[in-house]
Design brief:
There is one protein chain. The protein is α+β, with helices and mostly antiparallel strands and 514 residues long. It folds into three domains: 3-123, Gcn5-related N-acetyltransferase (GNAT) (Aminopeptidase, 3-Layer(aba) Sandwich); 131-312, Aminopeptidase, CATH 3.40.630; 347-512, Gcn5-related N-acetyltransferase (GNAT) (Aminopeptidase, 3-Layer(aba) Sandwich), CATH 3.40.630. The chain contains 17 helices and 18 strands. It has helices at residues 3-9, 20-27, 39-43, 82-99, 113-116, 136-141, 148-160, 173-190, 197-222, 224-227, 269-281, 297-305, 356-366, 375-383, 431-446, 460-468, 496-499; strands at 51-56, 59-66, 69-72, 108-112, 124-135, 163-167, 230-236, 239-248, 254-262, 287-289, 310-318, 347-350, 387-394, 397-409, 412-422, 450-456, 472-477, 487-493. It has an eight-stranded mixed β-sheet with strand order 4-11-5-10-9-8-7-6, with helices on both faces. Strands 12-13-14-15-16-18-17 form a seven-stranded mixed β-sheet, sandwiched between helices. Helix 7 packs across helix 11 (269-281). The chain starts with a helix and ends in a 15-residue tail after the last helix.
Length: 514
């Protein structure tokens, strides 16, 4: 069965340039700094990932069709009925996947931190790679020892070439497309020969993403003016060395670098074009968003090497909908689950170096890239005499972990809940409450006077849990989790009365606490 026929039968519409005003209005109601939430960044991918859209209950719903079936590219956008629109869109995904013979639970991708709060607490959530946000001034100046290698690269390019830049014009498109093909060949030549099947699979995935990116880039070059993009081309003599395209985001303070491609044979050209594009076109913008890294290690290394000021979190959500909104019975493949009794082999334990690998795996499943502990950090914490790691083991795995540190002050011993994570498959079993209670009981026995923690300001389920266990909000932590992502510091006084706080309550989403 042809997917186009199924799209049409379900009323799903292909994106056109004439849809820009509709999409712009919907995106204006979202988190303004995410690079994904713009018409241009969505439009150029419309063919590469088979995008379609429709409006339900006053919300714009954008769909993408891939190997795992039809999914929502974004949460429902706009000022309409979010829950009703989500329910109808999920049913459309189910109907499409059923007709195409795909057995996958519908999911919602590219969920911003602010929109995550609109989903049911019982929805399954997984972090995506977040956007890299930089100080525009620093990208122009490349100042400081941590950007020394970037300055040297820019200087080398200036010494060995005669660069000049110009605004992109449609006449530059053929040369840019030729450079795009050179860039693809150079990237493939630079890739190491896979040493094992796992590496070969990763390389195949990277090549597939690169092919889609090339198609999207070609589409962007064809529609620069209609999409409202600003572009710049970089020449060395008569040779086109690079090109870049960007746009201003809705917040008025952030520019987004949508596309940047340079010839790898011109050393330092990438450092030069990034810095120069910011200087010539975006100097008035406080922040520069370079998008995410697609979970590609080489791209992640490059973007991290520019020393981002912040990472903007994004999530994949497998929604659980309220029963009143369900149109049809949920299939057995639904990933979220009700609260279940604890297995007989569930134990509460203290962690050690032997648990390092399991803890690293737990971190990768529960936290966005850039917010996880690395191997060195976890090894240090597991060895520190001032730190205790509490574990819940279930079904032969580390199901949850809490890390508590202690410091002695003039008022006595103060403890901090440094991190808490509950693996996705073990959530809604009360493990978060069990860990906190274990920490508090041990600290009371040690004579500690208080326990503090930090939590995202919009993480209502976790805040509710902490309040039910005696914590109160002490102060606000502006930008604690990144630009625009504020937190609360919460504190509880440790006493015998707190140790008896054992009433049962459903624990949800405590993996968001860092």
């Amino acid at each position: 069965m042809d997917e186009t026929d199924v799209f049409g039968s379900l009323g799903l519409v292909r994106m056109n340039l004439s849809d820009k005003a509709l999409f712009d209005s919907a995106f204006a109601s979202t988190h303004p700094q995410l690079s994904d939430y713009t018409f241009a960044n969505t439009f150029i991918w419309r063919d590469a990932i088979h995008l379609r859209w429709q409006r339900y209950h006053g919300c714009l719903c954008v769909f993408a069709n891939g190997q795992d079936g039809l999914s929502l590219l974004f949460p429902p956008l706009g000022e309409g009925d979010f829950q009703a629109a989500l329910a109808e869109a999920v049913e459309v995904c189910r109907a499409f996947n059923h007709r195409m013979g795909v057995e996958q639970t519908p999911r919602v991708e590219y969920v911003s931190q602010s929109l995550l709060a609109k989903f049911s607490d019982e929805s399954l959530v997984k972090p995506m790679s977040g956007d890299y946000v930089y100080s525009t001034r620093r990208m122009i100046e490349l100042d400081g020892p941590d950007l020394g290698a970037k300055r040297k690269g820019r200087s080398w390019f200036l010494r060995h070439h005669t660069p000049h830049t110009a605004p992109f014009s449609p006449a530059d498109a053929p040369a840019c497309l030729a450079l795009l093909e050179r860039w693809r060949q150079q990237a493939e030549q630079a890739a190491a020969e896979p040493a094992d099947p796992a590496s070969a699979a990763v390389l195949t995935s990277v090549c597939a993403k690169r092919a889609k990116e090339i198609a999207a880039t070609a589409d962007a070059l064809e529609n620069v003016q209609a999409l409202g993009l600003r572009g710049m081309v970089l020449w060395s003599g008569e040779q086109l060395v690079g090109f870049t395209l960007g746009e201003r985001l809705n917040d008025g303070q952030t520019c987004s670098i949508l596309i940047e491609k340079t010839d790898r044979e011109f050393r330092g050209s990438a450092n030069y074009i990034f810095s120069e594009f910011c200087r010539q076109y975006w100097a008035e913008a406080a922040w520069c968003n370079a998008g995410d890294d697609w979970d590609m290690p080489s791209l992640a290394w490059t973007k991290q090497s520019y020393q981002p000021s912040a990472r903007l979190n994004k999530w994949v959500v497998w929604p659980k909908l309220p029963s009143r909104l369900l149109v049809a019975p949920r299939p057995e493949t639904m990933l979220s689950r009700p609260r279940v009794p604890e297995p007989a082999d569930t134990t509460l334990d203290r962690g050690g170096l032997a648990d390092l690998q399991e803890l690293l795996r737990l971190e990768s499943h529960c936290f966005p890239v850039g917010e996880t502990f690395n191997r060195r950090q976890l090894r240090y914490l597991l060895r520190s005499p001032r730190v205790t790691t509490y574990l819940i083991r279930s079904e032969g795995h580390v199901a949850a972990a809490a890390i508590v540190s202690r410091r002695r002050t003039a008022r006595g011993v103060h403890a901090r809940l440094y991190s808490m994570a509950v693996a996705p498959r073990f959530r809604r079993r009360g493990f978060g409450r069990m860990l906190i209670q274990a920490c508090m009981n041990s600290l009371i026995d040690e004579g500690a006077g208080a326990l503090s923690l930090e939590v995202r300001q919009d993480n209502t389920p976790a805040i509710t849990l902490y309040k039910s266990m005696g914590f109160h909000i002490d102060r606000k932590l502006p930008n604690y989790y990144g630009l625009g992502a504020h937190g609360w510091r919460m504190v509880t006084s440790l006493s015998e009365t707190n140790s008896s706080c054992t009433k049962t309550s459903t624990e949800t989403n405590t993996f968001l606490v860092t």
